[in-house]
Design goal:
Layout: H1 2-26, H2 46-60, E1 67-69, H3 73-93, H4 97-113, E2 117-119, H5 132-148, H6 151-173
Antiparallel strand pairs: 1-2
Helix pairs in contact: 1-2, 1-3, 2-4, 3-4, 3-6, 5-6
Length: 174
């Protein structure tokens, strides 16, 4: 179980961190931050550390049999890969692009370990009843993927997080 999590951390933690590192290495920085250019890209590897923490929590947390607590590491990796591969050149062209990437690194690290219940796409049966959220999510993702291509995958993950937060808030009020 632990070796599987180590492999998952390399695949879903170190790999996206390396993509973020590469992006931060080629971006423009404001003059006041230019002195940080040699070290700032290494901040990306915080994602690998938080992914390892998330995987360790998952191994020990028995509440996560039919859902997740926090953002699953594969979803986080998919987000970063699609976001930076699909929109990397646009982000590079923005004067605030580096700040956006750094802020999103912080947000994704928090989401990995946050105590936010997130639904899983695990089906016990194929009927509508009991799977409404899964089907609505899947069908609503199709236009995002068709219209936005690879970048649409990052929008799908953002939609997954937003829908999970909405459902959790609705459950808390009930």
């Amino acid at each position: 179980k632990e070796l599987d999590s180590l492999a998952d951390d390399v695949t879903f933690g170190v790999a996206p961190a390396t993509i973020i590192f590469a992006q931060l290495s080629v971006m423009e920085y404001p003059a006041v931050m230019e002195c940080l250019r040699p070290i700032l890209p290494f901040f990306a590897y915080v994602v690998a550390a938080f992914s390892a923490l998330r995987l360790a929590k998952f191994n020990l947390d028995e509440r996560q049999s039919m859902g997740f607590i926090g953002l699953p590491t594969p979803a986080n990796a998919l987000f970063w890969g699609a976001f930076l591969v699909g929109g990397g050149s646009w982000i590079e062209s923005q004067p605030w692009g580096f700040a956006l990437v750094l802020a999103m690194v912080c947000l994704s690290c928090w989401l990995l370990v946050a105590e936010i219940p997130m639904f899983a796409l695990k089906f016990k049966h194929w009927g509508w009843r009991g799977n409404e959220v899964r089907y609505i999510f899947l069908f609503s993702c199709l236009p995002l993927l068709l219209l936005c291509g690879i970048t649409g995958l990052s929008l799908v993950i953002a939609w997954y997080v937003a829908l999970s937060v909405f459902l959790n808030c609705r459950r808390c009020k009930a």
